[in-house]
Amino acid sequence: MEKLTGNISVLSFDDKEGLSEKISPFDIVAQIIEGKAEIIIDGATYFMEEGECIIIPGHISHSIKGNKRFKMIVTIIKSGYE
User: Fold this and answer.
1) Domains delineated in the chain
2) What is the pTM of this model?
3) pLDDT for 54-74, tens place per residue?
């Protein structure tokens, strides 16, 4: 789903896949819905498991690594940055 105020995406990754380091201008909520992943935010590593979620603040570097297959829901919140 994509709207002016934000996006919701479901992503699926195989073993050793993920998202390379980047910086988003918006806050992101990442929820693991299956498997496990490492989420690195501004150099700090968070080991996430199924059912857990984390907020990635806007304007902060982050990357996501999978140690095995995983699926996640990513919600980007664009409101409040007008």
Assistant:
1) 2-77 (2.60.120.10)
2) 0.86
3) 999 999 999 999 888 999 999
